[in-house]
Fold these 2 entries.
Entry 1:
Amino acid sequence: MAQDYIKIPDAYHGYAQTHFCVPKHYEEDLENILIPWGLIQDRTERLARDIFQDVKDEPLTALCVLKGGYRFFTDLLDKLTTLNRSHGSVSVPLYVDFIRLKSYENDDSTGDIQVIGGDSMNSLRGRNVLVVEDIIDTGHTMAKLLAILRQHQPKSVKVASLLVKRRPGSTGYRPDYCGFEIPNLFVVGYALDYNEYFRDLNHICVINEAGKKKYAAPKGSD
Ligand code: HPA
Ligand code: MG
């Protein structure tokens, strides 16, 4: 199960944005469309089916890691609730919660993280938890989040991440459910951002140098 993902090779250059629709305000800022929105939907439908088959009749607490995970979370949950409605003989009671992760030290992967928002972590005791993330990059953040969650004694914790980046320096962590393994490129769209821009783009795209420059964080901000 853990190796079950779509691998996008380094040599793959995706689609030209002229073949699909992108907002005018981002036209100059993208290298290519790596994963079109429709393909994200199709892959998410299958991930929902895999999750549904694995959990069977037990309740599931789906934990959305904001902000980047919000679109994948809503689409995944939509597909799970469709299965719940249509399956008839089996259904998965769903609870939802939303958290944000804050690093104590500026983006430094060695720093600790803090979970903000969400219900009390104590409510996870005895629950089957599904963490829903947009992307696993180094794997450090996820390792820290899992350690925090396990302190609250859930019955089980699984992770669904839409993307896993092939990144030097990765811990090698693999989520239980993974949509796509992507090259070591900075991607935006479908709620993934670059300094808060591009969340309002449907497709997952590779940002270009002009885009990085245009939307660079102002000096002094974190
Ligand atoms: N895009 C957006 N956010 C990210 C990425 C990325 O490629 N990697 C880690 N966080
Ligand atoms: Mg994320």
Entry 2:
Amino acid sequence: MAETITIIDDRTGKKVTVPLRDGVFPSSALRELDPDLRMYDPAFLSTAACESSITYIDGEAGILRYRGYPIEQLAEKSTYLEVAYLLLNGELPTSSELEKWNYDVIHHTMIHENMRKRFVDGFHYDAHPMGMFVSAVAALGTFYPESKDIFNPGSLEKQILRLIAKVPTLAAMCYRFSSGLPFVSPNNSMSYPENFLNMMFRLGDDHTVDPRLTKAMDLLFMLHADHEQNCGTTAMRVVASSHADPYSAMSAASSALYGPLHGGANEAAINMLTEIGSIDNVEAFVKSVKAGHGKLQGFGHRVYKNYDPRAAIIKKAAYDVFDVTGKNPLLDIALKLEDVALSDDYFISRKLYPNVDFYSGLIYQALGFPIEMFTVLFAIPRTVGWLSHFSELLKDDAQKISRPRQWYTGVDKRDYLAINKRQ
Ligand code: CMC
């Protein structure tokens, strides 16, 4: 029998019965009862703002799937670019499709010379790479006026390809600028993650990238590719709903990611571990968090109320990286912190577990990335998630321009007071 839900307006006795599908009912039920009814839902805790078939999360069970495929299987068997194809197209590519996709991405990695000379070079010497990235993504769109033509499938496809291909180049450009290093051009003979590491760290002709580190970079890209309706993706969708071009929408999504409660948490987690300084200080630190002095960075999640499956994969991968780079000295502090927190009732009762950002920073640091680059490393792979949602939204007839309502609690009408009469 189909499930339904009945909502009764106790003021009038009027009731409306609507279908309940997967625990979701249409808010049109409220409008039917009374067009002026509003549901107060700050931070959208109970609101499904769209239908989506891209990413599935069961936060209680710690499950994450891209287009139905468990993240653990993809992490073990796939590559970032294959996952990108999957997220965008809904299916894994055949070998010829994958070959073409890889070729196309690798052959769109160049960035217009003016982007570096006139735009990136204009930043202050100590500009934060993520601040540069956010604005550089928007600026990149100005090189492609046709990007505004978002309902032209050929044009949109081209912008998606460009963005996925060019964000590593842009990110490396921002880093090289802030380090005072000469820009390294993309190399078409390298894989996506290898090319990125090369553009980041190349110092001389004999520079090589260890394939185990390339693999770890690719894995981290895969794990960050999408995460359904988080803050950044919601920003992407809200901006896309006004039919802005994908570069502008992505700049907004990157800005949302920049915050310390979102993609900035990996940076905050390393700063926290550095501040703790030694495993002897862990218990006192946890005590101070419980007393209300700050948060455990990289802990807790709006959706996961169990171990974040990405954190579990990253924790394991960290050891493979440390085999090459040597152990990150902060690892022991992180392990002890996790141990202490997960046996403490404060964290258990609130279902606070390590999230993706708790261990990723340790790997980034071991790979040689400065802390300021961490959120940029999140933004590069999330590009494909954002663009998948951008495309999905444009095809969704139920969507209109995003325009939530408010609950006005300000003062009632009053008359303008001349300045000499004000207190
Ligand atoms: N350390 C200590 N206490 C915490 C933490 C934490 N990291 N996270 C939540 N709490 C407490 C919070 O104080 C509250 O306690 P009480 O009920 O006594 O008021 C309770 O747990 C519920 O927290 P909340 O703030 O209502 O949860 P939320 O869903 O609004 O926030 C979060 C989720 C991720 C913003 C939050 O857990 C947090 O700030 N974590 C630290 C930052 C972080 O690691 N962010 C990365 C998220 S994963 C990557 C991403 O999506 O970008």
